Every structure is written in C-alpha cells, then in structure tokens.
Amino acid sequence: MRRLLFLLPLAGFFAVAVWGGLALFRDGSARLPPSTLIDQPVPDFALPPLRAGDAAGLATADLNGADPVLVNVFASWCVPCLAEHPLLTRLAEEDGVVIHAINFKDTADAAQAWLAQHGDPFARIGFDPEGRGGIEWGVTGVPETFVVDGDGRVRWRHAGPLTPVIVDQSLMPLLAELGG
Amino acid sequence: MTRALLALMFGLLVLAPAAAEEVFDDPAWEARAQEIGRQLRCVVCANQSVSDSNAPLAADILGVVRERIAAGDDDTAVIDYVAARYGDFVRLRPPFQANTLVLWLAPAAALVLGAGLAVTVLARGGRLRREPEPLTVEEQARIDAVLRAEAGQQPPDPGDHGR
C-alpha cells in the first residue's frame, strides 16, 4: 500500500480539478459576491426628487414602512432596465408591490422622458445623477433591485435585469415570506 | 459632411478627459488617493485596481476615496468605508481573518512541506524511504556463507538444462 503513496500528488490534483470544475459551472448569475447590505439596515442616504410634481425624492426614512418594498436602480440609457421595465410595471400594477427607484447617473430630462414613454410604476424616485447614493447601496451597475423588509432591512439584492424566472422563483416567494 | 462629423468626434474626445473627476490639487493628497485606489479592487473589472481601471464605477469610487481623505479618514478607514458597501471582495490585500486563513497560510505551509520533503530526500541520499538498516553480524555471516558456497560451486553444466 505504501507503494501507492506516489499517487498522492495526482489524487490531490484531481481533487482540486473537480472542485474547480464544479465552481466554474455553478450558477453563473452569482457573479458578484453577495451584497454586504443583506440583513443590514437600509444605508444612510437622501436623494432629491426626479419628477417635477414630487415633494420629495427617496431617503432612508422612506424605507421603514410596515410592508416590504422594492428599490430599483435604473437609468434611461440602460438597455436591460428597459427590458425589465414591463415586469416591474406588472409587479406594481397587478401584484400591488410598492417599488421605489433610484435614478442612477442620469439626467433629469432623459429620465423623465423615459418614464413618460415607458411607464412609471415607481412610488418614490430618488434622483442620483452623480451616483453617490448608489455607492451607499453598493451599486455596481444598472439595473439592480433590492428588497427591503418591514423592519427597514435589506433582504435581497439582484444585480442585472429581473426576469420572469427570477421573479417567480426568488422574488415573489421572498415577498410572500416577508408578508407583502 | 463626413469631415465635419469626424471633427466633431475628435473634438468630443479631447473634451472627455477634461470632464473627468476632480482630482486633488495637492499632488501629495492625489498620490495618497491613487495609492489607496491601488489597494481597492474595481468590482466591475475585477482583476484591476480602482486606480488602474477605466470603468466609470472605478472613477466614482476613487471620488469617494478622495471624499473620505478630505474628511480626515486614515487609509484603513477609507478602505473600510468602501468595503462596508461593496464587501471584503474589494480589498486587494485580503484581511487576515478566519475565512482567509487558508489563503494566507497555504503558500507558507506548502513551502515548509516542500522544503521538508526536499531535505528528507537529500538526507537519505535521493530516496524517500529510510535506508535499510545495516545487517546484523549473524545476517552478514549467513550471507557470506551463501556467497562462498555459490562461488565454490562449479558453474552448472549447460547440457543439464536441456532436460
């Protein structure tokens, strides 16, 4: 048996190769490390309003309601945001989900025109042209969607556009569990 | 028409750097910002530091670094600020904590193991196993007897092996 000791490095290589291979072919949507905000209170931020008629934009205090809400980070120049927009609209209008938004690194005119053209399902919108508010949320790009629970804690972050599969399999169950 | 378009494009290209982020006037402060940026990973271009990356997010984070420097934070506090929002993943120098122990210790451990193996093999004269123990006096005597007997024998008759 000791004669087979020489196989040890080969066995070690195979162990590492299998581990690496499994890691490579794992669920690719988890490309970013999980958000540091998960289970943390909503970050400290305050953004001015985007829409002309709004009295206020979006700030930490607005995310302390009794029901879970979504916070969607979008921009008018962002194509995947456009792709997921009908889904958000449906969530807001048909499923009664409250969706707030952060308009990220955009211009007010372009963003308002985009909403006028594609629909505006958002309850509150924070205007973040410099992206400084997004940095508080650890935003790395658009779109990103966060779920904030009834205690003001971030419970979920999805980077990239929402898809029907993600909504059905991850988002809606989570909202149901949080009592939304 | 094309020429005018090209001229416009070049003009815009020239303007672009001027529209870039506000750097510190003081070169020492800017150098410090760039140095901290070199210790932060650009989350979008994950193999580049924030200082090296061209990604807009990297420029934004460098802006945040400058903000924190201006607010009086020391280097550790600045990096902690960014890591609190983007995760330990942004530290290009991984912290020394429970879940990075393997990362930190593995190379040293491999070196120690490899060196130990090399020394052992060299000390044993190029073999992994220990040298067989030298023969005892009785064993040596037995071998000598067998060798003498074989040497004393006549070489076998080649014809005998035909049977």
SSE layout and pairing:
The complex is a heterodimer of chains A (180) and B (163).
Chain A: H1 8-24, E1 46-47, E2 58-59, E3 69-74, H2 79-93, E4 99-104, H3 108-118, E5 125-128, H4 132-136, E6 144-148, E7 154-159, H5 164-178
Parallel strand pairs in A: 3-4, 4-5
Antiparallel strand pairs in A: 1-2, 3-6, 6-7
Chain B: H1 2-18, H2 27-38, H3 56-70, H4 75-86, H5 101-123, H6 137-152
Helix pairs in contact in B: 2-3, 3-4
Can you describe this structure?
The complex is a heterodimer of chains A (180) and B (163). Chain A is built from five helices and seven strands, in the order H-E-E-E-H-E-H-E-H-E-E-H. Chain A has 180 residues and is α/β, with parallel strands linked by helices. Chain A has one domain: Glutaredoxin (3-Layer(aba) Sandwich), CATH 3.40.30.10. The longest helix of chain A has 17 residues, at 8-24. The model of chain A has no long low-confidence stretch (mean pLDDT 92). With 163 residues, chain B is mainly alpha-helical. Chain B has a domain at 2-90: Cytochrome C biogenesis protein (Helicase, Ruva Protein, domain 3). Helices cover 58% and strands 0% of the residues of chain B. Chain B has helices at residues 2-18, 27-38, 56-70, 75-86, 101-123, 137-152. In chain B, helix 2 (27-38) crosses helix 3 (56-70). Chain B is elongated.
